[in-house]
């Protein structure tokens, strides 16, 4: 079984997979749309989860909220990796 890769290990190469400058530009534009589409709801979800951390909740609920926050932060790292892909 392969070890998990860092979310940004291949990101700088995403747009470089295309040799044609016009096609590369289309890839970069699509990455920009993807980042925006993912980042907006992700930011809202992370904010809501962080607010839940401040509430008086049971230990089991707190563990669940902590998992939610950790997964959101993982997704943020992936989205940021996409952000670095348009800088050669």
DSSP strand count: 0
Based on CA atoms alone, the radius of gyration comes out at: 17 Å
Mean pLDDT: 79
Main sheet overview: none
Number of helices: 2
Assign the structural class, choosing from mainly alpha, mainly beta, alpha/beta, alpha+beta, or little secondary structure: mainly alpha
Shape: elongated
Question: Secondary-structure element sequence?
Answer: HH
Helix amount: 55-70%
Instruction: Give start-end ranges of low-pLDDT stretches.
Output: 1-5
Quick synopsis:
The chain has 88 residues and is mainly alpha-helical. The chain contains 2 helices and no strands.
What structural keywords apply?
88 residues, mainly alpha, elongated, disordered N terminus
């Amino acid at each position: 079984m392969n070890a998990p890769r860092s979310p940004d290990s291949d990101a700088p190469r995403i747009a470089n997979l295309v040799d044609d400058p016009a096609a590369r530009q289309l890839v970069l534009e699509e990455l920009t749309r993807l980042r925006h589409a993912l980042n907006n709801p992700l930011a809202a979800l992370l904010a809501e989860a962080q607010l839940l951390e401040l509430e008086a909740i049971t230990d089991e609920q707190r563990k669940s909220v902590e998992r939610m926050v950790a997964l959101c932060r993982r997704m943020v790292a992936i989205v940021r990796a996409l952000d670095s892909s348009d800088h050669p």
